[in-house]
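Step 1: inspect the first sequence and its C-alpha cells.
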Amino acid sequence: MSTRFSFYSELAILVGLLQDSIGKSANLRQLALVWTEIGMSQTQRQERREGLVLHVDNLLEAMSSEELNLKTKLEESLESNKVELFDLCKQLSLKEEEVSEIRRLHMHTTSLCVHTYT
C-alpha cells in the first residue's frame, strides 16, 4: 500500500513541478509572442502546439528509458554484490547468525543505495 501511495505522491509532485515550470516558462511566452507577432493562423498555431507536445513527450520518453536503464543496472549490481557476499561468507565459513547479520547490514546498505539514487 505504501508503494502505491508513494507512486501517486511522486506523480502528483512531478505534475505540479511541470505545471509550475511551464506556467513560468519564458520560452513558452516567447513562442506565443512570436506566433502573434508574425500573424500565425490558428491552424498553424495548433500544428506548432502539437509539435511542442510531441517534443516534450519524446523528452519524457527518453528520460524514462534512461531511468529504467539505471534501475536495471542497480538491480544487476545488487544481485551481483549479493552473490559475491554469499560466496565470501561461504569462503570464510561464517556461522548462520553471522551470515544473518551480514544480510541485515546488506539490506540496510541496499536501502540506502536505492534512496541515494532516487
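Step 2: inspect the second sequence and its C-alpha cells, then contrast the two.
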Amino acid sequence: MSKTQHPITDELLDQLLANYQKPEDLIGAEGILKQLTKKLVERALDAELTHHLGHDKHQPVVSERALHLADGYPVVRQQLGQSAGLLRRQSR
C-alpha cells in the first residue's frame, strides 16, 4: 500500500455530513458509508482496469489487425475514423 496520505479535511467532512440527521444516514443501507465504499471501490477498479488495458474507459481502441483488414473496405476504414489515422502515424 502507498505511504502517501490523502488528508480528509474538515471541509470535506462538513460537505459529506451536510444532510446527516440520524445514525441510519451514516451507516444505514443507503447511508454515506455504503455510498463512499461503493464509489471508492469503483474508482479503484476503474483505475486498475485502465492500467491493465492501457487505455481509459470508453476510449476507442483500434488494433493494427483491424486496420489491415479494413484496408480493402473504404467504408469500414472511414468508420474507424481518426483513431485509425493516429494509430498508423504512431506505428511508423
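Step 3: confirm your contrast with the notes below.
The helical segments are 10-16, 23-27, 32-53, 64-70, 74-91. Residues 86-92 have pLDDT under 50 and may be disordered.
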